[in-house]
Design goal:
Layout: H1 6-25, H2 28-46, H3 52-60, H4 62-71, H5 73-92, H6 96-133
Helix pairs in contact: 1-2, 1-3, 1-4, 1-5, 3-4, 4-6, 5-6
Length: 134
């Protein structure tokens, strides 16, 4: 099962980079198609099948795939978080104010993660490069 591997994180990073312009500009049709492709590729990873574009990206662009992997957790976190939020709000019958507050907290975590993850990846890449040069 490659769902916990670098391939899965690179897949999430590719999806995040491709989907962001369409979802922010309101082109939901293309965003929906990309999401379905992302889900199909994630299921392929569950059965140890790596999509060719992911393996091509990892093998031909190692630095880019390193940064894509650093933000690749965000789509998985978003999908699992929304499913969990809907599930728990139905089980516990939360008030609308509580759900809205949790959605804001969830969005804040995603935004902070989107800002912090590439910075951490950049620092780690520089530290590894400096260590290899010595």
């Amino acid at each position: 099962m490659k769902l916990w591997s670098k391939e899965a994180l690179v897949l999430g990073g590719i999806y995040g980079v491709l989907d962001t312009p369409f979802s922010l500009s309101g082109i939901e049709f293309v965003s929906g198609i990309l999401f379905v492709i992302f889900l199909i590729c994630a299921v392929m990873l569950c059965f140890n099948k790596t999509p060719k574009f992911v393996s091509f990206t990892i093998s031909h662009y190692p630095k880019t795939s390193y940064y894509l992997a650093s933000i690749g957790w965000i789509p998985y976190f978003a999908v699992i978080g929304i499913i969990a939020l809907l599930m728990f709000s139905g089980i516990f019958q939360w008030a609308d104010d509580t759900i809205i507050t949790l959605v804001y907290i969830f969005d804040f975590i995603c935004i902070v993660g989107l800002l912090v993850s590439p910075a951490v990846a950049f620092i780690r890449a520089k530290c590894n490069t400096n260590r290899l040069e010595k």
